[in-house]
């Protein structure tokens, strides 16, 4: 269903039924495992459904509408049992009492009151008044205790017997959900030291807190790697629930991140990133390229484990991260951002990533970064301040033993700074031998620098617009550049001359990488297209269309058989090199075809025509099928043999023969064989059966004109034959009369 059309949804407690409500005022029941809609009915509401809830038996469904009414639906008998009126404004929360014998429904609407509905009487029997803002969740502790949370920064504990408030718990943040901790279980690590009601709150600060209801005290606050804000932010939590079967608490944030915590310790187990925003860069990470690190138009980095989609969110930068690069071993990587800094990160054996160093020194945002290739010895950055800087990596960061002792990030200092261009530097690259640095700028120039002292070695001129990317070849003394003029160029490092130009992109070429061990180039454009180029032939051999916006991120793994791309359309795509697989499949098909052709030759030689016909049809060889038909017709009583063989073919084989004979019939040399097969099909197949054949209409339309032409030609041939026969008879009579008149 269209995302924009769904106003609410609910999954039944038995995990069998998914119900969605749409803005078209329809309710739909889904078999969610097969993605099939099994039932659709009118919601009867006069405005969209805002909230839904199942009872504990999954047989009753309550829908709260924007029309201030609540409907109760019997999911088995499929009818509306109740229409509850009396709410004020949008009914944004409905919950059944867990004790089904009570037949009670709880709801809350825009007047911030909690209403209790007796379904046996069909009316509201009580109103719980205490909140001063929207009520966000209801949790039942036992049959007679209710905990409610609200955006008025309080939680309330209610006695359902007296229908009075037992306690008000000030939470000091807008609460979106309150979850009760189970009575059984060891929650001592969460500050639970005695029996009694405890609950977890999730809200605007993005932190889980554990509260003791009896004392209204916060007994545990979850430690987080970011500074909490009083007002709502992208880290605020919007949903929270307990999954008893897995002993987990699950939260959802404003950024659509789904996080799984151990319920007894609140230690993070798994995190799924739901939305990436505009992706500015992506790189493979880990010794076996098991992870990817992603810069997503935010100050946080995301590290995804490819096998499980588990995501780590890394905090450190204060403004948008612009670029990334990874050292050769894959354990350390560098990020740079608009906050004028770079940060060095290290991954441990268990996959956990920490920041080990940071460097400040640029006057503007740092837009490009490149790591040394041979050893983890230095980093090169370039900035909008038109400078390039070389930063040495101290041994304390590269040594595993010493790196483990680092408690806070070390400060890096640039050893060399050089003004490189007159405009923004968009790209920087380090050569495979760590001796050269290349830069590309908006001033349409690429430059080559010495790594040791950052002295200028040469300038590459030729692009008509700004250069977006520079890359060294892994095998040759060649530099590749891509530009906003839509071209890629290869340059010689010795004489700085342009060796080749690749034209084919209709938009700016943002990134390029060498693939296939340096024999091919892969480029990404601002139009969302990827192009694969063969360097030797200057040819674009493949265009890949999987993104809808600018592709900023492009990187290949160490084995050179996978590529990852990232785009402004928020999508990250993994590509696998299937060249060898396709070649092997093509070779296997060729070998199979040769074997079948040999088998076909043997069948024809042995005059086993039925098998020969079937094999020729499976090979999709119209001419070979024609040769078999001709061979059958040459036999004694060939017409009868042809009929016997055609009749014994399967329906799909007859359909194939029908498409073949349309082509045969266009040629007068083969029309006799085509007409013989047509005659057999018309003779032995009923008209209704023929009409069921795939493509019968097009076949008849193609056969008719040529068949008429063949018969006209036969008619002319017959007339000519009769005329020739008549002339021959007259000539013989004339010869005979002359012989009689000749004297002996």
From TrEMBL:
Keywords: Nucleus, Repeat, WD repeat. GO terms for biological process: endonucleolytic cleavage in 5'-ETS of tricistronic rRNA transcript (SSU-rRNA, 5.8S rRNA, LSU-rRNA); endonucleolytic cleavage to generate mature 5'-end of SSU-rRNA from (SSU-rRNA, 5.8S rRNA, LSU-rRNA). InterPro entries: Utp13_C, WD40/YVTN_repeat-like_dom_sf, WD40_PAC1, WD40_repeat_CS, WD40_repeat_dom_sf, WD40_rpt. Residues 597-731 form the U3 small nucleolar RNA-associated protein 13 C-terminal domain. Signal peptide: none annotated. Pfam families: Utp13, WD40. It is found in: Nucleus, Nucleolus. Its main location: nucleus. WD repeats lie at residues 1-40, 42-75, 84-127, 128-168, 314-348, 359-401, 418-450, 460-501, 502-543, 544-576. One of its GO terms (molecular function) is U3 snoRNA binding. GO terms for cellular component: 90S preribosome; small-subunit processome. PANTHER family: TRANSDUCIN BETA-LIKE 3, TRANSDUCIN BETA-LIKE PROTEIN 3. This is Transducin beta-like 3.
């Amino acid at each position: 269903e269209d995302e924009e059309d769904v106003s609410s949804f609910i999954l039944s407690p038995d995990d069998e039924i998914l119900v969605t409500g749409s803005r078209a005022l329809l309710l739909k029941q889904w078999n969610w495992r097969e993605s099939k809609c099994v039932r659709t009915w009118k919601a009867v509401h006069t405005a969209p459904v805002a909230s839904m809830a199942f009872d504990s038996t999954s047989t009753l469904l309550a829908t709260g509408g924007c029309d201030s009414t609540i409907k109760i639906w019997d999911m088995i008998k499929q009818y509306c049992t109740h229409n509850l009126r009396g709410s004020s404004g949008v009914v944004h929360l409905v919950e059944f009492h867990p004790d089904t014998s009570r037949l009670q429904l709880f709801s809350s609407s825009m007047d911030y009151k909690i209403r209790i509905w007796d379904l046996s009487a069909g009316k509201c029997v009580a109103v719980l008044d205490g909140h001063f803002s929207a009520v966000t969740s209801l949790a039942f502790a036992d049959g007679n205790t209710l905990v409610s949370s609200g955006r008025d920064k309080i939680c309330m504990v209610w006695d359902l017997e007296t229908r009075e408030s037992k306690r008000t718990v000030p939470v000091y943040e807008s609460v979106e959900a309150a979850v009760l901790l189970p009575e059984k279980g060891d929650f001592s690590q969460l500050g639970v030291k005695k029996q009694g009601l405890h609950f977890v709150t999730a809200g605007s600060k993005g932190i889980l807190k554990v509260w003791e209801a009896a004392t209204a005290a916060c007994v545990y606050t979850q430690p987080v790697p970011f500074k909490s804000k009083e007002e709502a932010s992208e880290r605020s939590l919007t949903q929270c629930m307990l999954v008893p079967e897995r002993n987990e608490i699950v939260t959802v944030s404003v950024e659509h991140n789904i996080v799984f915590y151990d319920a007894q310790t609140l230690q993070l187990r798994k995190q799924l990133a739901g939305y990436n925003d505009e992706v500015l860069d992506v790189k493979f990470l880990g010794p076996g390229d098991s992870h990817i690190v992603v810069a997503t138009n935010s100050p946080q980095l995301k590290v995804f484990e490819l096998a499980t989609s588990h995501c780590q969110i890394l905090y450190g930068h204060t403004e948008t991260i612009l670029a990334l690069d990874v050292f050769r071993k894959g354990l350390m990587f560098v990020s740079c951002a608009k906050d004028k800094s770079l940060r060095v990160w290290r991954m441990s054996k268990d996959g956990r990533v920490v920041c080990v160093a940071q460097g400040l020194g640029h006057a503007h945002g740092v837009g490009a970064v490149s790591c040394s290739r041979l050893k983890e010895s230095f980093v090169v950055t370039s900035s909008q301040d038109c400078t390039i800087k070389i930063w040495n990596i101290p041994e304390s960061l590269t040594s595993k033993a010493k790196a483990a002792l680092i408690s806070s990030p070390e400060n890096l200092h640039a050893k060399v700074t050089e003004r490189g261009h007159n405009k923004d530097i968009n790209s920087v690259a380090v050569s495979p031998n760590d001796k050269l640095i290349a830069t590309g700028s908006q001033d349409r120039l690429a430059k080559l620098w010495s790594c040791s002292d950052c002295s200028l070695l040469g300038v590459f001129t030729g692009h008509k617009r700004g250069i977006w990317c520079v890359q060294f070849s892994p095998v040759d003394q060649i530099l590749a550049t891509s530009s906003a003029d839509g071209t890629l160029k290869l340059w010689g490092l010795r004489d700085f001359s342009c060796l080749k130009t690749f034209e084919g992109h209709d938009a700016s070429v943002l990134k390029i990488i060498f693939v296939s061990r340096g024999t091919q180039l892969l480029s990404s454009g601002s139009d969302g297209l990827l192009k694969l180029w063969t360097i030797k032939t200057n040819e674009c051999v493949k265009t890949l269309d999987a993104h809808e916006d600018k592709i900023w991120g492009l990187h290949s793994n160490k084995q050179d058989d996978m590529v990852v791309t990232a785009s402004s359309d928020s999508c990250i795509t993994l590509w696998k090199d299937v060249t060898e697989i396709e070649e092997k499949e093509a070779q296997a098909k060729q070998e199979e075809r040769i074997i079948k052709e040999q088998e076909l030759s043997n069948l024809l030689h042995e005059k086993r025509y039925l098998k020969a016909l079937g094999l020729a049809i499976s090979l999709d060889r119209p001419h070979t099928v024609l040769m078999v038909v001709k061979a059958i017709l040459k036999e004694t009583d060939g017409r009868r043999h042809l009929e016997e063989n055609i009749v014994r073919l399967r329906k799909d084989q007859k359909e194939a023969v029908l498409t073949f004979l349309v082509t045969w019939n266009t040629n007068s040399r083969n029309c006799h064989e085509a007409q013989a097969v047509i005659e057999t099909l018309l003779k032995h197949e009923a008209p209704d059966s023929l009409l069921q054949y795939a493509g019968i209409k097009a076949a008849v339309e193609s056969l008719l004109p040529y068949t008429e032409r063949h018969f006209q030609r036969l008619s002319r041939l017959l007339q000519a034959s009769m005329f020739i026969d008549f002339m021959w008879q007259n000539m013989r009579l004339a010869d005979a009369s002359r012989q009689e008149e000749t004297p002996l």
